[in-house]
Amino acid sequence: KNQVEQSPQSLIILEGKNCTLQCNYTVSPFSNLRWYKQDTGRGPVSLTIMTFSENTKSNGRYTATLDADTKQSSLHITASQLSDSASYICVVSDRGSTLGRLYFGRGTQLTVWP
Amino acid sequence: EADIYQTPRYLVIGTGKKITLECSQTMGHDKMYWYQQDPGMELHLIHYSYGVNSTEKGDLSSESTVSRIRTEHFPLTLESARPSHTSQYLCASSMGQGPTGELFFGEGSRLTVL
Questions:
Q1: Nearest C-alpha in A relative to B39
Q2: How far is CA B99 from the centre of its chain?
């Protein structure tokens, strides 16, 4: 069964600290993996996309990694800010059919305290 | 910032009422989706459309219906709302082949059925 598991479920850090969020998946055949940020009361917004051949990709203070062999991805946030408080959702796409489909994780709820 | 809009943002109604959640996008995307999101849970696809006059049910069984008469408009209708329909409903759109491209989400419609 194709699944996406995220950890931790929730995380509290102090402003300025770094943190790493994890995403493990069993989706096969793999197409790509996206990290979305969802602020409270808003819709998710894409942060980065990882394809099979990519190991690391950065978007400002966000750095995503992908290990396609172990089927793991991480999202590292550097020098956290209060505005980073949000839910971070891992979404994996397959290419098992003509159109493919998406598998969503339950998200990691990050809270940044001043 | 994505140009996809949902109304109403919040709705509280009584059991048995008919409601329509509106979703419009100005990006010209062919593909549009409705997701249901409950706290701490993954997004579940309830309906999708790959173009005008094309609609399909998603993975989550739903008593709602959708229509796609115009590219930019994808409303969701509940003929008779029940307390079990209380949830957050997210509309999204994407471009490219299949659903594996970046999703652009609206800000959501939070429905409470009393």
A1: A106
A2: 15
